[in-house]
Amino acid sequence: MDLFLVILILLCLIGVSNILHRLIPFVPVPLIQIVLGYTVAYLPSGIHLPLNPDLFFVLFVAPLLFNDGKRIPREQLWELRLPILLLALGLVFATVFVLGYIVHWLVPSIPLSAAFAIAAILSPTDAIAVSALAGRNALPKNLMHLLEGEALMNDASGLVAFKFAIAATVTGFFSLSQATASFLLIAVGGLLSGIVLSFILIRMRLHIRRWGMEDVTTHMLIQILTPFFIYLIAEEAGVSGILAVVAGGIIHAIERDHAESVIAKLQVVSVNTWLVILFILNGMVFLILGLQIPDVAAIIFRDNSISNGPVIADIIVISISLLSLRFVWNYLFWNKNWISGQKDLAPSRLRSVLLISFSGVRGTISLAGALSIPFVLQDGSPFPERSLIIFLAAGVILFTLIAASIMLPFLAKKNEKSAGPDHETMEHMAHRKIIQSVIQTLRDEMKPENQAATLSVIFHYEKLMKQPLQNRNFPKIPSYEHETAVRMIGLRAEQAEAEYLLETEQISRDTAYHLEEHINAMEAALSHNIRFNFFLVITVVKRYSLKLFSHNKKTLKTEVQEFRFAKIQTSKAAIAAIREQINEETRLVSLDLIGAYHKAIERLSLNQQHSPKRKLLDTQKKELQLKAIVIARNEVQALFESDEISREVANALRQSINYLEATLLDE
Q1: HSE-up of residue 7 (Cα within 13 Å, Cβ side)
Q2: Are 157 and 121 in contact (CB under 8 A)?
Q3: pLDDT per residue over 374-425, tens digit each?
Q4: Residue 475 near residue 468, CB atoms below 8 Å
Q5: Are 277 and 24 contacting, i.e. CB atoms less than 8 angstroms apart?
Q6: Between the CA of residue 485 and those of 175, 364, 584, 656, what are the distances in Å?
Q7: Which 3 state secondary structure label does DSSP give 339?
């Protein structure tokens, strides 16, 4: 029960971290999750979850690296094989040798073999952390592929070096020839085992389909179990389970690309299922890292024989040495052909090397490796400075994460040879991207039963897309302040007309109340998001309550007719008020809004009964329009997080979307 509550709390924290990231998008999600994990662990009655390295690797690392192997482009991986090997092998072994001596020099109480061990476990970059941090910045694609390929391959070399350094410390014996042969066996064996096991699993799934078992759930279960199956068998055989799951992911990606059309439904379910699994696992990884920090730090801070200040200084020196070595190595071996694309958009050699250097973040894999250090040597004596080694590893991990969070957004900015787009151009470009995203998503999710409604909504958005292209130059987009001002004029006129209709007893108090509620919701949509969300919830609840508890159909029909009459009158009043206030600056938005009011009047004036088929079509269109609003909101957030639009443009777009949503709900 306690473990279940811990998992439930961690899942809630994953959701909280993404909400906080929406509020502070400049802070990466992994860093927020680490802070949340540290916070709940630091509380007096907080969560204490000891990290079992073996369980961590099989439960988290195996499925995440399997997915990375499926996702990474194979052609680019092959093209970048030389730089990837230079980083995954050459840089790892250079780091072990150089950093090992630096650690031993800083902390003489750590034997040289143990210093090589900490250097080895800090040498590989964390594929999970690299994807999470580097992916949110506008890095060149080939640079991203290089970093991902390095992170997938260097785990094996780093962990093998770590294994032999620990063995040398425990036994006091080391053989270079034996270590080299063992490394080749573990690496090549891991790759081959991943390939062979993947082929076996793919053939098994094929035979299951031939037996007539096309059940998506069964095949999905086999897919979920695949990375665990490959990793455990490879590790049991004494080869690299990490390289095995990476190779397995690549083989499964090849199989997916050549899959038969009959399993297209399985591919759709697979993508959505893995999105949820990876979302949870990625969040758990960084929360668990945060949970470990208080316990690791407490051991050192409570030890009177260790001075806290010098230890912190050692962490800083080791971290800077690690980044400096990575910078020097990449600068010496850098080749401009590694980054393709337009020359004027490609970063310079110095900036490219700096990007690679700061992107080399260390993560939970390094901490899990450090925690796997044995407690005693072969002779029964304690492992020298085990707690200090773990603390140094945790400190370096945090340093690289924070350094990458600060430096990558700055370094990843595009060359600013020309001035960036102004507010109006930025908003116009964002509108086009949002419309494209809505159209593409609706097309991808179109089904036979809602095809007509989907095509109708898509046609509407395609018209919006083509409107700016009627002339070669983009039309001037009115400022959001002008749009808001004109809309408020219309709402004020509606409010005044509603009061007049009530005073002259043309409508009942209930109808006047509903009109007032609608106007307030519209005003909230144009001003405060929190207030708008409140009105949104109230509107949805009232609508469904009306459907559930309205028994007198005749009374309900009369109320609807009265409300329709009132809306027509208030819309006419709004049109008249807007026409009186038109000027040169607000002409475009005023005419658009007047047109919208005329369409509403035309729709409300039609008092005929529609066929059940027409009603179904209208209902489906409304649902798709609301879905399009959700897609638009997500696209606005994505554009804002990628620095393609400013905060002001994002807020203007969100308020515009709020207004549209309130209008749809009111209909």
Answers
A1: 6
A2: no
A3: 888 888 888 888 888 988 998 999 899 888 888 877 776 644 444 455 666 7
A4: yes
A5: no
A6: 79, 52, 14, 13
A7: coil
Can you give the pLDDT at residue 526?
Answer: 62
pLDDT in tens, 304-325: 777 778 899 999 999 999 999 9
Q: Nearest 5°: phi and psi at 498?
A: -65, -40
Token output for 582 = 């038109």
Tracing tokens 């007509």 back to the chain, one arrives at 452
Q: Classify the phi-psi angles of 382: left when phi > 0, otherwise alpha if psi is within -120 to 50, otherwise beta.
A: beta
Structure tokens at 164: 């032999």
Q: Which two tokens stand for residue 220?
A: 């999905």
Residues ≥6 apart with Cβ < 8 Å to 192: 239, 247
Residue-by-residue DSSP string for 76-124: HHHHTHHHHHIIIIIIHHHHHHHHHHHHHHH-TTS-HHHHHHHHHHHSS
Alpha helices in 258-374, H assignment, sequence order: 264-301, 308-333, 349-359, 364-371
Q: Which amino acid is at 641?
A: E
What is the total residue count of the chain? 667
Mean pLDDT of 185-191: 88
What pLDDT band is residue 607 in, cutting at 50, 70 and 90? low
CB neighbours of 387 closer than 8 A, spacing ≥ 6? 296, 299, 300, 303
Class of residue 46 by CB neighbours under 10 A (exposed 0-12, middle 13-18, buried 19+): middle
What band does 67 get if pLDDT is binned at 50, 70 and 90?
Answer: confident
User: How many whole angstroms separate alpha carbon 20 and alpha carbon 24?
Assistant: 6
| Contact (Cβ atoms closer than 8 angstroms) between residue 191 and residue 241 | no
Judge whether 33 and 290 are in contact, CB under 8 Å: yes
Write down the residue that tokens 């039309």 correspond to.
475
Structure tokens at 96: 């072990």
CB atoms within 10 A of CB 232: 14
pLDDT of residue 473: 36
User: With bands split at pLDDT 50, 70 and 90, how would you rate the model's confidence at 290?
Assistant: confident
The H or E element that residue 599 is part of is helix 587-605
Cβ contacts of 50 within 8 Å, gap of 6 or more: 295
- Percentage, residues of the chain above pLDDT 90: 11
- pLDDT at residue 316 in the model: 94
pLDDT of residue 200 exceeding 70:
yes
DSSP, collapsed to helix, strand or coil, labels residue 382 as strand
- Do residues 488 and 523 make contact, with C-beta atoms less than 8 angstroms apart? yes
Q: pLDDT band for 295, please (50, 70, 90 cuts).
A: confident
Chain segment 494-534, per-residue pLDDT in tens: 888 888 888 888 888 888 877 777 777 677 666 555 444 55
Q: Give the burial class of 317: count Cβ atoms within 10 A of its Cβ; 0-12 exposed, 13-18 middle, 19 or more buried.
A: middle
Helix/strand/coil for 303: coil
CB 265 within 8 A of CB 100: no
Instruction: Pick the closest to residue 360 from 150, 160, 155 (CA basis).
Output: 150
Packing angle, helices 647-666 and 612-641, rounded to 10 = 170
How far apart, in whole angstroms, are the C-alpha atoms of residue 94 and residue 371? 23
b/e per residue, 139-177, with b = 16+ CB within 10 A? bbebbbbbbbbbbbbbbbbbbbbbbbbbbbbbeeeeeee
Q: List beta partners, residue 376.
A: 382
Q: What is the spatial distance between Cα 564 and Cα 550, in angstroms, rounded to a whole number?
A: 18
pTM for the full model?
0.66
Q: Are 10 and 39 in contact (CB under 8 A)?
A: no
Taking alpha carbons only, the member of 285, 199, 316, 301 closest to residue 250 is: 199
User: Residues with Cβ < 8 Å from 444, sequence gap 6 or more?
Assistant: none
